[in-house]
């Protein structure tokens, strides 16, 4: 499996790993995740490498990818476009996004990144009382915590407001060895906050949010996942005219590589 880097439009180096050959499948991680921390990605890619070129990349500011200030959501669209063009050789690409990585995929397609089809696993949406909405000043508070040298507070805000963990549980996590790793990428939590935008506002999704997304979309959720994740997946699928909703075996905001690989293979062949 070759590893390498591409240079995005603003000069940022984006690191990737690739498996196989054929039309590309690009994996986009969600908040705080990277190639090194998402255990499902590599075995999923290996299962699909007989027929597809599967590309897993570190989003900017994480893992082995660089970062360039100031951030804007468009920079991540450019990162994805660079991966598709230079690693995927411009062939028709399927983009698969975990969680808020799915929101990024939809936003990129809306912005004109050449994507043939989109698959999502539990994208972020809150349009009713299934979960509390994000605070209106969520991104601003994240940015302020990082700017003030309080990355742990940014991580804690993400855990409580976005992941919906009890504050006392999060307080107990601060002493864990892996907490420092989250603090190191704390600036990127606000990146996902911007990608999610107002989809977690508790209000109906804006009609124009993804009205330019006219490619096939597969929206998956785990059968035994948290109820708020099911509600979000259903809301996104209902909002997109070319979307199919597919419950799959899985729980706690994830599924297994064999389930995911089979679902992606079937979706691509059907579309």
UniProtKB/TrEMBL annotation:
Domain of life, source organism: Bacteria
What the entry lists under InterPro entries is as follows: AB_hydrolase, AB_hydrolase_1, AB_hydrolase_fold
Q: Which UniProt keywords apply?
A: Hydrolase
Keyword set includes Heme: no
Annotated GO MF terms:
hydrolase activity
Name of one Pfam family that matches: Abhydrolase_6
For whether the record's keyword set contains Coiled coil, the answer is no
Locate the AB hydrolase-1 domain: which residues?
Answer: 45-263
| Name of the featured protein | Alpha/beta hydrolase
């Amino acid at each position: 499996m070759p590893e390498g880097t591409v240079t995005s439009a603003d000069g940022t180096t984006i690191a990737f790993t690739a498996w196989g050959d054929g039309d590309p499948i690009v994996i986009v991680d969600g908040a705080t995740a990277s190639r090194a921390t998402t255990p499902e990605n590599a075995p999923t890619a290996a299962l699909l490498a007989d027929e597809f070129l599967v590309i897993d990349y570190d989003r900017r500011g994480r893992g082995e990818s660089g970062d360039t200030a100031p951030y804007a959501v468009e920079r991540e669209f450019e990162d994805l476009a660079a991966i598709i063009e230079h690693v995927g050789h411009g062939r028709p690409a399927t983009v698969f996004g975990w969680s808020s990585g799915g929101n990024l995929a939809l936003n990129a397609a809306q912005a004109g990144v050449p994507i043939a089809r989109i698959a999502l696993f539990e994208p972020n949406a809150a349009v009713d009382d299934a979960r509390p909405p994000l605070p209106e000043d969520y991104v601003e508070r994240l940015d302020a915590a990082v700017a003030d040298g309080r990355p742990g507070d940014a991580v804690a805000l993400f855990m409580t407001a976005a992941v919906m963990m009890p504050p006392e549980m999060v307080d107990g996590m601060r002493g864990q060895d892996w907490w420092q790793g989250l603090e190191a990428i704390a600036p990127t939590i606000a990146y996902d906050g911007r990608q999610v935008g107002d989809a977690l506002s508790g209000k109906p999704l804006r009609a124009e949010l993804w009205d330019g997304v006219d490619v096939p979309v597969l929206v998956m959720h785990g059968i035994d996942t948290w109820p708020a994740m099911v509600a979000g997946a259903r809301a996104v699928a209902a909002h997109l005219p070319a979307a199919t909703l597919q419950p799959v075996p899985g729980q706690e905001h994830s599924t297994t590589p064999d389930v995911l690989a089979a679902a992606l293979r079937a979706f691509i062949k059907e579309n």
